[in-house]
Amino acid sequence: MDANSASKPKLRYGDPDYVGARISFECQSCSLPDVIQGILVKAGVRFDFPEAQQWQRVADTVVVNDEPWNTVLDVVLARHQLQATWSELGRLVISRRLTPVATGPGKLGQLLAGLPPVPANITTLNSASRAIEAERLFREGLGYFFLANPDDSRLALVRFAWATRIFDEVEYAGREATALYMLGAAFLDLGQTRRAREAWLRARDFGQNAGNQRAALLSEVSLAYLDALEGKSPEAARRAAAAGLEFFRQVTSRTNLSSRSLVDQELDAMLVTLSGRLFFRLGDMETACQAFDLGLDAYTKLEDGARGIVENAVWLERCAELLGRRTEAQQAIETGRTVQRGARSERLRIALLSWMGKVYAESGDLKKALELQREALNALRQLSDRALETGVQWNMAHIQAALGNHADARRSYENVLKLTEKETDAFWRTQAQEALARLP
To answer: Which Gene3D superfamilies match (predicted)?
Structure first.
C-alpha cells in the first residue's frame, strides 16, 4: 500500500469528495422522519433527529435506484431546509438549516414605516399577554382581509403589522412568519408590490428558520408569482406552483385533518389558489383548473370563504374559456355570482362585485373588470358607505389606468381624495396623490 494513501484520513459525509455507498429506496408519501430514517438505515449511519416529532405531519416521496446515499439525503434535506452535521459522538444530527433573514436585523421598522404603532394599552402588557393580543389582532386582520374591499384591506394591514411587531418582540418566530405573510398579502391587495415582496422575503426566511413550512412555502410561491408577473424565471415559477399544489394535496388527503387549525385551512386555501394563478400565468390551463377546483372547494368549507369562492370561480371561468369548455365556464361563474348575490349584507355583496372585477383584471379581461366596477358603483347609490366607495373608486382607477384611460383614472383617483379629505388617517390621500403623480 502507498504510504501517502495510507496516511490520508477516511472521508465521511460532508467532505467535498465523499461519495457514499449506493442504495435503492422507495417510500411513497411517507412522513419525513421515516424517509430520513430509511435512507440512513440503508447507509448504515447512526443518527439523531431531535425534532423528528415536529416533522411527523410533513410527507415526502423518495424513489431511487442505485444512487449514492449522501446524494439522496442531500436532496431530501434541501427540500425541507434541513441540514446534517456530525456530533462529537460520531452521530449524524439532523436539524433545521438557519438562513439569514432577507431584510436583515433592525429592518422590520422600515417595512412597517408609516403604519400606526401598536396601541399603548397592549405595549405595557407582559410577554404572554402581548402574544395573546397578537393572536387576536391577527384573527381580526383576517376578518377584514376576507371582506374583499381595499379599505378593509387597509384595516387588515394595520392589524397584521401590529401582530408582526408583537410576535417579533416576544420572539415567536413561527407566528411572526405567518403574520408577515399576511402583511405582504394585504400590501399586494393595496397595490404595494415592493413592500409585499419585502414582507414575503422576511416571512420565507422566518418560516424556514422556525420550521413553519406553510408560511415559508406560501411566501416562496408568492415571490415566484411576482417574478412571473415581471417575466422572470418560468422554471422557478413552475417548481413553486407544483410545490404549493403538492403541499395542499398532502395536507388535505390525510385521514386525520383535525390537527389543521382554522387559520391553517384558510392559508392552505390561499396557497392552492395562488398555485393556480401561477399555473395560469405559465399557460398550463389544465393544472390551473385543477388547482382552482381545489381552491373553490376549500373556500366553500370556510365560514368566511366568499372572497375565495368568487376569486376561484372567476379563474375557473377564464381557464375553461381558454380550453374551449363553455359549459364549465358558465357553471363556474354562476357559482361565483350565486355566492356574491347571497352575501350576508348589501355591503359585502357590493365589495364582492368589485373584487370579482379586480380578479378579472388580473386574469387579463380588463373590459369585464371595468364593467363590474361600474356595476358596483351603481349599486353604491343605494348605500351610503364612504369607505366602501373609496375602495371601489380605487379599484376602478387602477383598471382605467391599465386600459390607458388616463383621464378617467385621474377622475377616479381624485374621487378617492374627495371621499377621504376629512379623515384623520392620511393613508388614502397619500396613495391617491402618489398614483396621480405616476399618471402620464
So the answer is: Tetratricopeptide repeat domain
Asked if residues 20 and 43 have their Cβ atoms less than 8 Å apart, the reply is yes
With 0-12 / 13-18 / 19 or more C-beta atoms within 10 angstroms meaning exposed / middle / buried, residue 17 is exposed
pLDDT digits (tens, 9 = 90+) for 79-103: 887 888 887 778 898 987 755 554 4
DSSP readout, 315-367? HHHHHHHHTT-HHHHHHHHHHHHHHHHT-SSHHHHHHHHHHHHHHHHHHT-HH
The single residue listed with the C-alpha cell 431531535 is: 50
Phi, psi at residue 28, to the nearest 5°? -95, 120
Q: Which residue spans of the chain are classified as CATH 3.55.50.10?
A: 22-96
Domain range 22-96, its CATH number among 3.40.50.720, 2.60.120.200, 3.55.50.10, 3.30.450.40: 3.55.50.10
pTM here is 0.78
User: Which positions ≥6 away from 179 have C-beta within 8 Å?
Assistant: 134, 138, 160, 163, 164, 167
Q: Is the dihedral of CA 257, 258, 260, 266 positive or negative?
A: positive
Query: Is 294 in a helix, a strand, or coil?
Result: helix
Interatomic CA distance for residues 3 and 8, integer angstroms: 9
Strand-pairing partners, residue 86, are: 92
* pLDDT tens digits for range 307-342: 999 999 999 999 999 999 999 999 999 999 999 999
Helix (H) or strand (E) holding 376: helix 366-380
Q: Which residues in the chain land under pLDDT 50?
A: 1, 3-6, 102-105, 255-257
Q: Provide the b/e sequence for 214-245 (b: ≥16 CB within 10 Å).
A: bbbbbbbbbbbbbbbeeeeeeeebbebbbbbb
pLDDT recorded at residue 256 = 44
Q: For residue 278, give the C-alpha cell.
A: 401561477
DSSP label at 11? P
Of 65, 54, 51, 55, nearest to 30 (Cα)? 55
